[in-house]
Amino acid sequence: MKASPLWIAALLLVGAAGAFWGAGSVPLALLSLAAVAAAVALSGVARRILGVLLIVVGVAAAFNGHWLAIVGGVLVAGSGALQVALGARMPKIGVGGQKTRKTDPETDMWRALERGDDPTDDKAPGGPSSNE
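RESULT FIELD:
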């Protein structure tokens, strides 16, 4: 089974969060976890912009000096590079399972009745009825 680049990027960010947490850089650890959610939710150009931001954050974090922060910075920058390079081909979570809703005449009739419209009337809604 081939691993998806999206999940590789997410796992790199989770690993970076653990490394930052171990280095005592809690804000960077939380930023890495938030970046996981953003990477999964975004797509296309927005995901590539996130990737560029992650590269910048990763390089800046690598200059912290603590060896775990350096590892975390490399992991964040790697995830960012992956998102810049392959961001357009990564799927957006939640889009693939959506189906178009088919219209159900019976349900539409009940909804018309709930709105106060007569679904059996041939005239436009809100106009004079044929009984008047």
